[in-house]
Amino acid sequence: MAPTVAIIGAGFGGLCMGIRLQMAGITSYTIYEKAGGIGGTWRDNTYPGAACDVPSHLYSFSFEQRRDWTRRYPAQPEILAYLEHCADKYGVRPHLRLNTEVTSAVFDEAVNRWRVTTADGDERLFDVVVSGVGQLNRPRLPDIPGMSSFEGTSFHSARWEHGHDLTGRRVAVIGNGSSAAQFIPRIAPIADHLDVFQRTPNWVIPKVDGEYGPRERLAFQYVPLLQAANRERIFQFVENVIYPVLVDGWSKRLVTNRAQEHLKQQVQDPALRAKLTPAYPIGCKRIVIDNDFYPALTRPNVDLVTDPITRIVPHGIETAGGTVREADTIIFATGFRTTDFLAPIEIVGRQGHLLHERWKDGAEAYLGIAMPYFPNLFLLYGPNTNLGHNSIIYMIESQVRYIMGCLPLLSAHGPMEVRQATMDAWRRALDRAMAGTVWEASCHSWYKNAAGRVTNNWPRPAAVYRRISRAPRREAYDFG
Ligand code: NAP
Fold it and tell me: Is pLDDT above 90 for 441?
C-alpha cells in the first residue's frame, strides 16, 4: 500500500512534491497550507515591481516548462499564475487544505507514524511528513526601539498594504536588499519624499531584462528545442560564470568590475557612489540584479540615509546624532527569519527529540533533507540548499526525486532514519566545501545564523547537488 504523506506548505516545494506523487499514482497525500492560497513566497510578495532574478526559462519545473513567458525575468503575477496552472493541470487541488496551519508533528513510536496536528485542533496520522515551508516564509521585523510609538502606517515588504496609497507621502524604507531594490524605483516617482535607510550597501549588477516579442514567444512555443537550448544556456551560464564568483574563482574579478561599472554609469555623485560601494567581496551577501535601483536613489526626492537608526518616533525615524527624519509611512524591507527553518512548528522525533533543540547551534540535515531521530521526515529547500547563483526549483526537484526514491524503501523496510555517522560525515564535507566560499567572509547576511555559521547555502555547483542526491543510499539509513 502506498504511504500516506503530509506535505507542509503549498509553495514551489510542496506543490512539486504533490505533483510528483500524483504523477506516480500516489494519491494518499495532503498538502497543508496556512494561507488561503497556494504560491508561498510568490503569493506573499506582491510589492510593486516584485519579480524573480532567475531568468524565466529556467524558473519553471522541468516537467512543465512554460514556453510563453512574456519577459526574460518573470514578474510575480506571472509566476503565481504558473503555479496555479500547475496545481490545476496535475490535479493536486483536491489534496490541498488551505487556511490550515500545522502546529506540530510528533513521531509516534508505537505505530511508527507521524501525528500531525493543525491549529484547528485536527489530528491525523501519516507515514511520511515532507516540509515545504522553505526559507523565506516568515517576515522579519527589526527590533528598533520605539517601533510601537509610530503614528503613521507601517508594513513589511512581504505584507504590502495595497490599500495604502503612497502618492504624495513621506515614506521611509528600512533595508536595501533584493526586495527594496525592486520596489523603491516604483514608489519613488509617486512619493513626495523617500528616505532609504541603508545599513550595508549591496553589490548590484545589471539585469538583462526585456519583453519577449510575439515572434520570440511563438518560436519558443513551436520549436521546443529552442526553449530547451535557452534553458540549458542559462543554466550553464550561472553554473560556470556566476558560481565561480562565490568561490573566489575566475569570474570574480570580471563580475566585480561589472558591478563597479554599473555603479559608475548610474550614479554620478561621488559622495553617493561612495555610500553605495560595498566593503566586502561580491557574493558574500545576495547580489542584487537590477537596473532601476541606483537611478531611483539619484532622484531629487530620494535620500540615501546611512546614519544608523537609533529609534522610531511617532512621526519618523531618529538617527545617530539626534536627527529626526519625518515619515508618515515606514516600509520594512528587512528580510525574513531565514535561519529558524520550520519554526514555529513543533517537531518531535524519536525518543522525544525536539528538532529545534537539536538545531539550537544551527540547522543541519543530511543533503538538507533528512535528520537522525526524525524517521520519514524529509525537508525541501532545507538547511544548506539555498543557492546564490541558480534556480531553487532545480534544487527542489532534486530533493523531490530523492524523496520519491525513499518511498519504496520505507514502504518495504519500515521507517528510515539517517544514521548519525552519515550525518557527521555530511557535516564535515559541508564544512570543508564551505571554507572556500565567499559567504565565510566578514559580512552579515541572511545565509548565516547568529553564531556566524552558514546554515542556508549550498557551497558547490547546483549540478553537484543533483548528482549526489540522485537516489537514497540504503547504507546511509537505519530502517524499521
Ligand atoms: P534581505 O536581503 O535580507 O535584506 C534585508 C535588508 O534589511 C538589508 O538591507 C538589511 O541590512 C536591512 N535591515 C535588517 N534589519 C535592519 C535594521 N535593524 N536596521 C537597518 N536595516 C536593517 O531581504 P530581502 O530584500 O527581502 O531579500 C531576501 C531574499 O529574498 C533575497 O536575498 C533573495 O534571495 C530573495 N528575493 C529575491 C528577489 C528576486 O528574485 N529578485 C526579490 C526579493 C527577494 P544589512 O544588509 O545591513 O543586514
Answer: no
Question: Which helix (H) or strand (E) is 89 found in, with range?
Answer: helix 76-89
Pocket test for ligand 1, best of 47, 53, 147, 199 (most atoms within 8 A of CB): 199
Q: Is 478 left (phi over 0), alpha (psi -120 to 50) or beta?
A: beta
Angle subtended at Cα 309 by Cα 303 and Cα 311, rounded to the nearest 5 degrees: 125
Query: Which amino acid belongs to residue 425?
Result: A
Domains of the chain: 5-138+337-479 (3.50.50.60), 147-209+248-332 (3.50.50.60)
- 64 pLDDT above the threshold of 90: yes
Q: Global pTM?
A: 0.97
Assess whether the C-beta atom of 305 lies below 6 angstroms from ligand 1.
no
Instruction: Please state the rounded mean pLDDT for residues 58-77.
Output: 95
Phi, psi of 215, rounded to the nearest 5 degrees: -70, -40
pLDDT higher than threshold 90 for residue 187: yes
Predicted pLDDT at 343: 87
Taking the C-alpha atoms of residue 415 and residue 422, their distance in angstroms, rounded to an integer, is: 17
Give the pLDDT confidence score for residue 224 in this predicted structure. Answer: 87
Which residue is closest in CA terms to ligand 1's atom 32? Answer: 286
pLDDT tens figures, 225-245 = 999 999 999 999 999 999 999
Q: Which residue in this structure is represented by grid cell 527569519?
A: 337
C-beta neighbour count of 136 within 10 angstroms: 23
Cα separation, 431 vs 155, whole angstroms = 38
Task: Tell me what pLDDT residue 54 has.
Answer: 94
Q: Is 140 in the pocket of ligand 1 (CB under 6 A)?
A: no
The CA distance from 327 to 313, in Å, is 10
| Cβ(144) – ligand 1 distance below 6 Å | yes
Give percent of the chain with pLDDT exceeding 90: 98
pLDDT at 442 over 90: no
Q: Decide if 56 contacts 65 (C-beta within 8 A).
A: no
CB distance 142 to ligand 1 below 6 Å = yes
